[in-house]
Automatic annotation (TrEMBL):
InterPro entries: 6-PGluconate_DH-like_C_sf, NAD(P)-bd_dom_sf, P5C_Rdtase_cat_N, P5CR-like_CS, P5CR_dimer, Pyrroline-COOH_reductase. Keywords: Amino-acid biosynthesis, Cytoplasm, NADP, Oxidoreductase, Proline biosynthesis. Signal peptide: none annotated. This is Pyrroline-5-carboxylate reductase. It comes from Pseudomonas auratipiscis. The keyword Nucleus does not apply. One of its GO terms (biological process) is L-proline biosynthetic process. The lineage of its organism: Bacteria, Pseudomonadati, Pseudomonadota, Gammaproteobacteria, Pseudomonadales.
Amino acid sequence: MSKTRIAFIGAGNMAASLIGGLRAQGLDASQIRASDPGAEQRAKVNAEHGIEMFADNAQAIEGADVVVLAVKPQAMKAVCEALKPNLKPEQLVVSIAAGITCASMNNWLGAQPIVRCMPNTPALLRQGVSGLYATHEVTAAQRQQAEQLLSAVGIALWLDTEQQLDAVTAVSGSGPAYFFLLIEAMTAAGEKLGLPRETAAKLTLQTALGAAHMAVSSDVDAAELRRRVTSPAGTTEAAIKSFQADGFEALVEKALGAAAHRSAEMAEQLGN
Ligand SMILES: NC(=O)C1=CN([C@@H]2O[C@H](COP(=O)(O)OP(=O)(O)OC[C@H]3O[C@@H](n4cnc5c(N)ncnc54)[C@H](OP(=O)(O)O)[C@@H]3O)[C@@H](O)[C@H]2O)C=CC1
Ligand SMILES: O=C(O)[C@@H]1CCC=N1
């Protein structure tokens, strides 16, 4: 990465997290450029990260080794088709757009080496996790560049098939929202049980943080950690039994299935 030049197309939330991660890893501001249609957004990203910003996507990718597509999935086709005449065959394209396949991007861009990724929003705190899939055209050195890019904001995991990205999207791409939903629900339930809202929120948040730290750092799995909290005939058992009687695991499986299905459906709807 020491000399890699990276251009971001779209400088919204995810791009800004990646740019922040790269800068924190020691990439010089002169190695990173980004384009965005919003003048305010350009000024904000420039002020935060000191990188050169462009209104014109074609200008931003000039001389870049890696071009990161960080626009909404709905904008991908138009963005790719407009970039096509300006892309060089050796430029690696890294897409973080949900539900846009490599085949669609190759249709729009021509034959480019492509790495398709699915990061998640904890990337903002460099606590993210991403799944990565590379097409055959991607060289070993380019794989390394893509991995280093995503590793700047968390853990990067290579996938064997592109289809697995639908599952990654369901588990970790959308995943932060499931934990936020649980935090919301536990806070509300704590309040209903008689706690002040602020107390219920603090108890919930610190419990989530502590449990996540334990699950990450422990040498036993989550099921064993759960068993250790669950005293026979105690309070946890009462709660877990209630969750399971209402089909908790099936509910989670159905929800993640819906997310994966939506990812595949987006590929069909937006891919032509
Ligand atoms: N948010 C998440 O949790 C995750 C998102 N992703 C993916 O990341 C991508 C970006 O998401 P996110 O950062 O949240 O979205 P944002 O809306 O924050 O960022 C997208 C940016 O692209 C800009 N943009 C719009 N059109 C163009 C264009 N033609 N050329 C250049 N820039 C343009 C937008 O400007 P304007 O707002 O003015 O239109 C906006 O600033 C999406 O494809 C999403 O699927 C992946 C993993 C997780
Ligand atoms: O909800 C979405 O479609 C995007 C992709 C993963 C997280 N946010």
